Amino acid sequence: MKAFYSVNMTLLGISYKSSSNLKHDLEDKIKQFPSYSARIVLMPFQALGACHGPFDTLEKATKMAANDLDENDVDYFGVKWCFIECEMKDVFYESVPIPTKYYVCTNSDCKGVQRFKGSCGTCKSKGKDLVPTSEVRDWDRKMEVL
């Protein structure tokens, strides 16, 4: 069976230029120890709270990032992510917990944040019509102070 993990490279302080380099390094390391489960190899990362999984789909693993990643694999909060795929010996998968969701204005000059989906209320109050928002999953409650 396939399993997917998400790795918070920023929390680990890993400075790979590309997350695909870390992805290949970890996948190779897991293959080097065929008698161990991937869970054992990734346990030090999980102990630091920087590795989440195993998940049964890549989609669930990517939900651990705050939002869709940019071209540098960085989310809204500036966290760099890596997603790895490996063979799973165990049959236990984690489920994605339900995070606090916020919706941020897509207009970079606005910085509007709201709790509901739709167009930005801050822009609307300034006379701009229908500026869309994008979803941000706030796992660490960074946006509660707003």
How does this structure look, described?
By secondary structure, this protein is an alpha+beta fold. The chain folds into two domains: 2-87, no CATH class; 100-138, no CATH class. It is built from six helices and six strands. The strands form two sheets. The chain has a three-stranded antiparallel β-sheet with strand order 2-1-3. The chain is elongated, with a radius of gyration of 18 Å. The N and C termini lie far apart (42 Å). The model has no long low-confidence stretch (mean pLDDT 88).
Number of discrete domains: 2
Estimated share of beta-strand residues:
15-25%
Rg on CA atoms, Å:
18 Å
- Strand tally is 6
- Would you identify the regions where 5 or more consecutive residues have pLDDT less than 50? none
In DSSP terms, counting alpha (H) and pi (I) runs of 4 or more, how many helices? 6
* N→C terminal distance: 42 Å
Q: Biggest sheet, in brief?
A: 3 strands, antiparallel
Average pLDDT figure = 88
Run of helices and strands: EHHHHEHEEEHE
Global structural class:
alpha+beta
Kindly state the percentage of residues in helix.
Answer: 25-40%
Output the strand order for the largest sheet: 2-1-3
Q: Globular, elongated, flat, extended or rod-shaped: what is the shape?
A: elongated
